[in-house]
Design brief:
Layout (H helix, E strand, L loop, with lengths): L2 H23 L3 H13 L5 E3 L9 E3 L4 E4 L2 E4 L6 E3 L6 E9 L4 E8 L5 H4 L1 E6 L7 E3 L5 E3 L28 E8 L2 E6 L2 E7 L20 E4 L6 E10 L20 E2 L9 E3 L5 H6 L2 H18 E4 L2 E4 L6 E3 L5 E9 L5 E6 L2 E7 L15 H7 L33 E8 L2 E6 L2 E8 L21 E2 L6 E11 L2
Antiparallel strand pairs: 1-15, 2-5, 3-4, 4-15, 5-14, 6-11, 6-15, 7-8, 7-14, 9-10, 11-12, 12-13, 16-28, 17-20, 18-19, 19-28, 20-27, 21-24, 21-28, 22-23, 22-27, 24-25, 25-26
Length: 479
């Protein structure tokens, strides 16, 4: 054999697999995002079965033209709306469906009684958009879809289009999960995120009025639309807002649905602050990160301790951080401060929910104000407004709606709910912040318009005061 030919053959054989491997390594972003979302959903424990496979328990509406066979809910041709008996606000909803050629249905969410899914609530398309019914032959013999972008499967009808290419063949079951929490709607089809929307930021694609985008609760519906479509394995996990005050029988023992961040015994699950600047902290890696964290943990152990089941801070040192990062969540925390104290809670490493003494009238030199001007100077920080405000905001509101603090020395309770970049806070049972944007304090170059990190640590802020915490409970919300 010719040596040159043999060399070329060997080189080709070696290179070809390499090209194939490189091509195989390319990751589909929709599938990668879906994998991450489904992994978080795997930790959800409060799933309930909405369809028992036998009868219409939990459902109402057109129970004549929907039938049940072998555990499958069948929407027959000509059927209309079937909806849940209960109304739901925030939830994760998963189901399987199988389409017929050009089959059309819809998943209505947050639909008010008697309302239209597509406008008074929201309708997520369930549609074989590949079907012949939706194709038109052009003059040159090609096929062109007649559907609007927001009509393909998984889209919010009339509002936002979904990604295509993830429906299975007609004879196969599809798996779909819908996350609908506050203004966040995400659709995961067969492992791929095909829609990820924040309703407050949307302008409807059909330019029509969609009051349902502001609807915060309602029925879940299968919309019918006259075609044969099959459903099974229908489950829901409820993520409606929790009660502002937790039901706690014993300190540091989490209520149902929550996990304890503090065990009342030691600092397990916590770490020191590796760098005061979050951008620089996030950039740490390798040996540099290891060394910075080691020093931070030494400072933590010197100044943070557990005394009689209470997480206690000496007033010197640095902030205390969760070892784990959190994205969307609900967080209960009891806190107590001495007179004149100052602290806060960072969400996703970002300052901050303010904690301070609103009744402290003293000047920095500990003298009492003796003039109107001195009083104004004393309170220019806004502490007289109370705790709970997002104090570092510049554009969005930075103050609490009401002053709900107890006097220094008494225990206060926050319920903090974070979804996307919006924060809602209750202090001692009173709403003090209502779905307000937490701006990115660490965006030092722009106008706080760089998005927050999707997940990061929660921090208890050091501000030179003695601090006391207990009953730190968290419930992660899927996103």
């Amino acid at each position: 054999m010719n040596r040159l030919f043999l060399y070329a053959t060997l080189v080709t054989a070696l290179i070809a697999p390499s090209h194939a491997q490189n091509k195989a390594k390319k990751t589909d972003p929709a599938l990668a995002a879906g994998k991450a979302s489904l992994a978080r959903l795997d930790t959800v424990e409060n799933w309930v079965k909405l369809f028992n496979g036998k009868d219409f328990t939990n459902w109402q509406g057109d129970t004549e033209n929907y039938t049940i066979e072998d555990g499958v809910l069948i929407c027959q041709a000509g059927a209309k709306t079937l909806e849940t008996e209960k109304e739901y606000s925030d939830f994760a909803f998963k189901f399987e469906f199988k389409l017929t050629e050009s089959g059309n249905n819809g998943l209505g969410i947050r639909v008010p009684p008697g309302g239209r899914a597509a406008y008074d609530g929201m309708e997520l398309q369930i549609l074989d958009h590949r079907g012949e019914r939706y194709q038109k032959e052009t003059t040159d013999g090609k096929s062109l879809s007649i559907l609007k972008p927001w009509q393909v499967h998984g889209s919010i009808y009339g509002v936002m289009p979904a990604k295509t290419g993830y429906l299975r063949p007609l004879d196969e079951w599809n798996e779909q999960t819908v996350i609908c929490i506050e203004d966040h709607v995400k659709v995961i089809l067969n492992g791929a995120v095909i829609l990820d929307a924040y309703l407050d930021d949307l302008t409807p694609g059909d330019l029509k009025e969609h009051p349902g985008l502001k609807q915060r609760s309602g029925h879940i519906q299968f919309a019918g639309h006259n075609d044969h479509v099959e459903f099974r394995n229908i489950h829901l996990a409820d993520f409606s807002p929790s009660e502002p005050m937790p039901k706690v029988e014993n300190d540091n023992v989490a209520p149902e649905g929550f996990s304890a961040l503090f065990n009342g015994k030691d600092l397990d699950g916590w770490k020191g602050l590796a760098h005061k600047d979050a951008n620089k902290r996030r950039a740490l890696e390798g040996d540099e990160l290891t060394e910075a964290q080691k020093i931070a943990d030494e400072i933590m152990n010197e100044h943070w301790s557990v005394v009689d089941g209470i997480l206690t801070y000496s007033g010197e040192g640095q902030s205390l951080c969760t070892a784990k990062n959190y994205g969307d969540f609900e967080f209960y925390i009891d806190w107590k401060i001495p007179p004149g104290a100052d602290s806060g809670i960072y969400l996703r490493g970002t300052p901050q929910i303010q904690i301070w003494d609103p009744r402290d009238p003293t000047m920095k030199n500990d003298e009492m104000p003796d003039s109107v001007e001195d009083w104004i100077e004393t309170y220019k920080t806004g502490r007289n407004l109370g705790s709970g405000g997002l104090w570092n905001n510049k554009r969005a509101s930075n103050r609490p709606l009401v002053m709900a603090d107890k006097v220094p020395g008494e225990w206060n309770t926050f319920l903090i709910r974070m979804v996307g970049d919006k924060v809602t806070i209750w202090l001692n049972g009173k709403l003090v912040v209502d779905r307000t944007e937490l701006e990115n304090y660490w965006d030092r170059e722009g106008d706080r318009d760089i998005p927050l990190p999707r997940a990061d640590q929660i921090e208890l802020q050091h501000h030179g005061s003695d601090l006391y915490f207990k009953n730190l409970f968290i419930r992660e919300i899927p996103y």
